[in-house]
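This protein record is not my work; I was only asked to verify it. The record follows directly below this note.
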Amino acid sequence: MKMRFLSLVGNSFGCSASGERLVSAARDGDLQEAKALLDYNPRLVRYSTFGVRNSPLHYAAAQGHHEIVALLIESGVDINLRNYRGQTALMQACQYGHWEVVQTLIIYKANIHKADYLNGGTALHLAALNGHSQCIRLLLADYIPSIPTFCSILRKQLKNEDSIAEFDEDALYQVINRAADGGITALHMAALNGHSETVQLLLDLGASVSDITVEDGTTIDLIGAGSTPLHYAACGGNAQCCQLLIARGASLTTENGNGWSPLMVARSWNRDWLEEILSSLPEGQPQLQLSPYICLPLMSIINIARQCGWKGCDAHNACVDPCVVCLERKCTVAAEGCFHEFCTHCALYLCSTNHTSAVAHGPPGSIACPLCRHGIISFVKLKDTRPIVKEIMRTSLSHSFCACSGDSPEIASLETPFCKPDSHCVHITPLGSSFRSLSCQRFPSMRLSPSLCMGSPDTSPSLVPRTVDCDVREHLVRCSRLSFRRSTSQTEGRSWFCSFNQCVATESSC
């Protein structure tokens, strides 16, 4: 029995060491090291660091290593895995503006609606907070159809016909205007931090200029409850953001809970250069240009990438014409309109790096064909492009019980580390909520507590057990978010307004 205990502890130390090596490889972008570790033990993909509970997927996403992100997903990691703050890899990629990682995660259908535990912010909020317009457009790829009349529909010049089944205007409106704690929307955060390009994109996609913040008792709001995005833009001091909001109908006279209008907010923060802009409406109707990101054909190309893959294969056969952009891969898609052919990988790159709306033919915001400058609205598959069926490897083994040595047999039937070896059905109710029963099978010849393994997950009531299914986890998050936030230090609470603190660091007298 003593030798069996030492063997288990030894395996635990081995798992932890290998897991830390995988974390280092993911953080440093060492693809070969990551492949070698996952070939040695595929279950390392579920490792998470102590304390902050960041997985290798979190580290790779935060550092922008999209190839490692794809490797981890194909190795079976939960793409929506959360850390101790409730952040997913998609949130961290959006926070740091790594559009290639966001693109990879969106192709693998990462959930864009997840909100963190501390302030209820989504990936859209984090992208808007830091002005990453490319990431915002990729997040909304499944909501914006690749059709030539999309701009006219948004401007209400055309009605959304029933034949356009892929465009749900109400769903897009709800995603764009989803509020975090305190009623803060993505438009509030972009306006506060002076990201005019992001403000323009959000307004073009239907962001509301009249949504106001609320007092919820936990969110630090130095501007005041009842503030519109124009109040936040006035505090941030960016004249272009204020002009864009006013041109889209933002009110100059709306007062927040402190009785301040946007002009009074600007004066209180010494934004003297905004006096003229916020004092009266501009004469005449301003000419507004559409965002260069609005008509990108992302929905069409991402759907093709999901069905047929996007990494592609090299065109070694001399009879096959390679892609004119990379000269390496076989052509798999064609631009609708000019019908020039590209590989899926290059088509994705063209969509995600477009920064201009100047095209020869096509609506504003569409991308220009690199061969003829014709505006590309959509991509279509070539006839010989076939869907691929690639089953992603999934492992149900918890990292807590992984056996790194060759002496112990590999057990492939364990489903959860929270049940005792001999139990058949256990109800887990850490916060008084009702959960569905979790079944587990016997773990042969071992009765040790899973907590003895260094890789065992934290079962603190303030965190969500990773083995609970998605519906139960979401219910637990909603029940525990308020108490979790209030138990967090003021330093954590202020992190949501990190950019706000930077922009007013010189205004300490206010």
Q: What stands out?
A: The two ends are 67 Å apart (CA to CA). Residues 209 and 250 are 5 Å apart (CA to CA). The longest helix spans residues 2-28.
